[in-house]
């Protein structure tokens, strides 16, 4: 098969990284994949070929005929069996290009979050109804994401399949987190409102008050970073928190941490939890989205959303007792069910059924 993958832009974000990893696995088993982006970007993604950009204009996305036409030309030249859109504005551009320039390939939407949380008005929902009525299939990252989508767009019933995110087999580098001789708490994620960094600071403050010899490491970047840096100063935690920005080897940080924390308020199925399980690093997270589909009493600690005191208490228990016995079960879960070579075969099976139906 030929598969065209569309991403929002080259950026070090889960949706784009997984698209590249999936595409690499699809290529290994004999399929031909081309990745393009809606917008220009600077990140070096794990994909060997050039990622062609539509060079779209976000301010005129609903009248961007030039970018729609460029996509149609790429499709005419590449002749894919299907087009998969992966977060951001990729759905908008694919649907508008298809409707205007009349290409016929089916559109597959990869749903990696809880879409309903972003629908703030009837107009937004009405517009999204039009987009989703133009697609052929949705592949949701979790059962929670599927449920959320059906609650807002029930006409998609029968078109949604759940295929989780996966991990690459990787050799984990050894990294020494500074300062040495203390406990290390790690958070990996973009600085966006969904990741709830402000709540994380309050949780860390509670932990630090009872365990002064602890350090918080924040890996990632994004629009909320400046605000969080100000909050760190307000909380007088500058000496206890390190900002890293984007890193090329998050696994080495996860592997070296004593605990990974994820107090997100919105999630699909976060790959960083799987990465922590792969590294045998304990995880504490809020029970949102599809988190509970991998994190449970056997594999980690789930906390009721916004219960910051319980979250801090669980972190302290793990750091103080130092006998967390769930990491082996978590590691086995990932190795047996969440590796990308297995996940890619599920995507191929889904693609083949769709292509057969479309013929």
Q: What portion of residues is helical?
A: 40-55%
Q: Which shape, going by the Cα principal axes?
A: globular
Helical run tally: 12
CATH topology of the largest domain: Rossmann fold
Strands of the widest sheet, in order across it, are 3-2-1-4-5-6-7
Distance between the termini: 14 Å
Averaged pLDDT: 95
Number of domains: 2
Rg, Å, rounded: 21 Å
Which strand-content bin applies to the residues? 15-25%
Organism: Gramella jeungdoensis
Protein name: Glycosyltransferase
Pfam families: Glyco_transf_4, Glycos_transf_1
InterPro entries: Glyco_trans_1, Glyco_trans_4-like_N
What does this molecule look like?
It is a single chain. Helix 2 (65-78) crosses helix 3, helix 6 (197-210) crosses helix 10 (308-321) and helix 9 (271-278) packs across helix 11 (327-337). The protein has 2 domains: 2-168 and 339-358, 3-Layer(aba) Sandwich (Rossmann fold), CATH 3.40.50.2000; 183-337, Glycogen Phosphorylase B (Rossmann fold, 3-Layer(aba) Sandwich). It contains 12 helices and 13 strands. The strands form 2 sheets. A 7-stranded parallel β-sheet has the order 3-2-1-4-5-6-7, with helices on both faces. Strands 10-9-8-11-12-13 form a 6-stranded parallel β-sheet, sandwiched between helices. It is of the alpha/beta class and 359 residues long. It is globular.
Which features characterize this protein?
single chain; 359 residues; alpha/beta; Rossmann fold; 2 domains; seven-stranded parallel beta sheet; six-stranded parallel beta sheet; 12 helices; globular; Glyco_trans_1; Glycosyltransferase
């Amino acid at each position: 098969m030929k598969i065209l993958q569309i991403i929002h832009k080259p950026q070090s974000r889960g949706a784009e990284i997984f698209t590249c990893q999936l595409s690499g696995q699809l290529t290994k088993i004999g399929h031909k994949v081309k990745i393009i982006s809606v917008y220009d970007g600077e990140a070096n993604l794990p994909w060997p070929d050039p990622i062609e950009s539509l060079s779209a204009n976000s301010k005129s996305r609903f009248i961007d005929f030039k970018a729609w036409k460029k996509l149609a030309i790429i499709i005419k030249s590449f002749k894919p069996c299907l087009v998969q859109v992966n977060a951001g504005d990729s759905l908008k551009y694919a649907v508008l290009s298809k409707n205007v320039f009349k290409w016929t390939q089916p559109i597959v939407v990869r749903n990696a979050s809880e879409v309903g949380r972003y629908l703030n008005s009837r107009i937004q929902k009405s517009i999204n109804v039009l987009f989703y009525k133009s697609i052929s299939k949705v592949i949701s990252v979790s059962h929670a994401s599927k449920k959320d989508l059906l609650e807002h767009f029930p006409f998609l019933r029968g078109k949604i399949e759940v295929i989780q995110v996966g991990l690459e087999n990787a050799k984990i580098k050894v990294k020494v987190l500074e300062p040495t001789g203390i406990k290390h708490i790690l958070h990996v994620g973009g600085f966006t409102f969904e990741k709830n960094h402000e709540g994380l600071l309050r949780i860390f403050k509670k932990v630090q008050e009872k365990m002064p010899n602890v350090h918080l490491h924040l890996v990632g970047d994004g629009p909320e970073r400046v605000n969080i840096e100000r909050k760190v100063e307000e909380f007088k935690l500058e000496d206890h928190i390190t900002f890293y920005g984007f890193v090329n080897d998050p696994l080495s940080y996860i592997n070296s941490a004593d605990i990974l924390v994820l107090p997100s308020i919105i999630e699909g199925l976060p790959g960083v939890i799987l990465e922590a399980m792969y590294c045998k690093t304990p995880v504490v997270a809020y029970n949102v989205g599809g988190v509970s589909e991998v994190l449970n009493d056997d594999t980690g600690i789930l906390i009721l959303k916004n219960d910051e005191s319980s979250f801090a208490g669980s972190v302290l228990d793990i750091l103080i007792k130092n006998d967390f016995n769930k990491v082996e079960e978590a590691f086995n879960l990932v190795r047996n069910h969440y590796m990308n070579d297995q996940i890619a075969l599920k995507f191929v099976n889904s693609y083949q059924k769709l292509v057969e139906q479309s013929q």
